[in-house]
Design a protein that fits this description.
- It is built from 16 helices and no strands.
- By secondary structure, the protein is mostly helical.
- It has three domains: 170 residues, no CATH class; 73 residues, no CATH class; 119 residues, no CATH class.
- α4 packs antiparallel against α5 and α9 packs across α12.
- The longest helix has 33 residues.
- The chain is rod-shaped.
Length: 429
């Protein structure tokens, strides 16, 4: 038998009691009617409503381990006992000495708050909470709530007096204040769980959709959070929820930072120029462009660089990834940090092509170095051009070239095109 099952609250009336109910105008079958028993000799009876049918209270005692013979405290009068339990239930100072009507209204308000605020509007639980253990934990809280809802309805319709309603509740808990206290604590935890559930659903979705980051500390924290979902009933406890939230916020912050940096590194390759985070060497790119403009120059290196650069530009992501990560662990461009991204690797390819192309041109020009230097001196070139050409023909790092230097080289190569073409053929062998 389940706690709080309405089938265990109302008792099927005999034909005689049905007639009595009809004559007295008591509610029909819409609201389960709570009926008060005659008490044993020597046990104080609650104030009875006039014209109330006398039935057994056994059918009102739902499965809380209470029996018909469970003795009520005898040190208090019926009224004192009812007022004390009403005060324990409502947890309001001064209720024991309040006027009966005020105590009744406060008790009804409390019952209404439970029925509408705690029991009602329960959102659908995610699949992770649909376990037998979690259901059993919730059942011990919800079943008494449903019983109290029925008590409230009967109290509102006048089927029960205030004292009789409290007496029903007291007997339902076996008149054990400790049991009542544990149930109220569970009720408070359940109410907190309901308020926390939307935040959990966001965390659950975030954790399941997040990418592994190949970061030992971050991936271990994610694994711990997902492991906590294997025992969802523990999240009914406030301490467990606080611990879960603390770990999730730590995970989310570190995940967002890591994902953002990897996203920027992979998909903002060209944009790095504006943030002093250069991904493609701009000096090498400009030098290759100038050398590729020389007569009889091989254009294949520059053409491949341009193709890759256009591909990178087409795959740039300008979405506000930091704002997206607040709500969802993946950018809408579908960037996956666990897979090597083409834009980032293409930047490396571009730099490799730039160095290969520059080395090719320097190798060809070195073969012609002697007569190039003679021509430069014969034309009385300026010091800056002479310095750049000497660097170009040397083995050290290449400095930025100027258009004036390449214009001078064009004149020299044009006058010596035969020798230059011969050296180009040898360099290709």
């Amino acid at each position: 038998m389940d706690i709080g099952d309405p089938r265990n609250i109302s008792k099927t009336q005999s034909p005689e009691s049905s007639k009595t109910s009809a004559a007295s105008g008591l509610p029909g079958s819409g609201t389960p009617k709570l009926e008060i028993a005659k008490t044993s000799k020597g046990t104080p009876t609650p104030p009875a409503a006039s014209d109330r049918p006398k039935e057994s209270l056994n059918d009102l005692l739902i499965e809380f381990g209470c029996a018909e013979a469970a003795p009520s405290p005898k040190k208090m009068s019926s009224e004192e006992r009812s007022r004390r339990w009403a005060a324990l239930l409502v947890d309001r100072v001064g209720m024991e000495s309040a006027p009966p009507e005020l105590a009744r209204n406060q008790f009804i308000d409390w019952l209404t708050h439970l029925a509408e605020g705690v029991l009602g509007n329960m959102p659908a639980l995610p699949g992770v909470f649909q376990t037998t253990r979690f259901y059993n934990e919730i059942k011990t809280i919800e079943s008494p709530l449903r019983f109290l809802k029925t008590v409230s309805e009967n109290l509102r319709t006048g089927s029960l007096t205030f004292y009789e309603a409290v007496d029903c509740v007291g007997r339902n808990f076996g008149w054990e204040e400790e049991r009542l206290g544990k149930w109220k604590q569970g009720l408070e935890n359940f109410a907190g769980f309901k308020r926390w559930l939307p935040a959990f659903m966001h965390a659950h979705e975030y954790l399941t959709a997040a990418f592994p980051m190949n970061n030992e500390r971050l991936d271990k924290l994610r694994a711990l959070l997902l492991q906590a979902l294997d025992e969802p009933h523990r999240l009914l406890e406030p301490g467990a929820r606080i611990d879960f939230d603390t770990k999730f916020l730590e995970f989310k912050k570190n995940y967002m930072d890591s994902y953002f940096l990897l996203h920027e590194d992979a998909l903002h390759v060209m944009g790095g120029f504006q943030r002093d985070e250069v991904k493609v060497d701009p000096v090498a790119l400009r030098n290759l462009e100038l050398l590729s403009s020389l007569p009889h120059a091989d254009q294949s290196f520059l053409n491949r660089v341009k193709l890759l650069a256009r591909w990178i530009q087409r795959n740039q992501c300008n979405l506000p990834v930091d704002q997206i990560l607040e709500l969802y662990p993946r950018c809408y461009c579908n960037f996956n940090p666990t897979v090597r991204q083409h834009p980032s690797s293409s930047a490396t390819q571009i730099n490799t092509l730039l160095q290969e192309g520059l080395e090719y041109f320097r190798r060809v020009l070195r073969r012609c170095g002697n007569w190039i230097l003679l021509e430069v001196k014969a034309q009385a070139a300026d010091d800056e051009s002479l310095k750049q050409i000497n660097t170009l023909l040397g083995d050290g790092p290449l400095i930025p070239l100027k258009p004036s230097s390449t214009r001078l080289l064009k004149k020299i190569i044009t006058r010596n095109s035969g020798e230059f073409l011969s050296e180009i053929r040898k360099a290709r062998q």
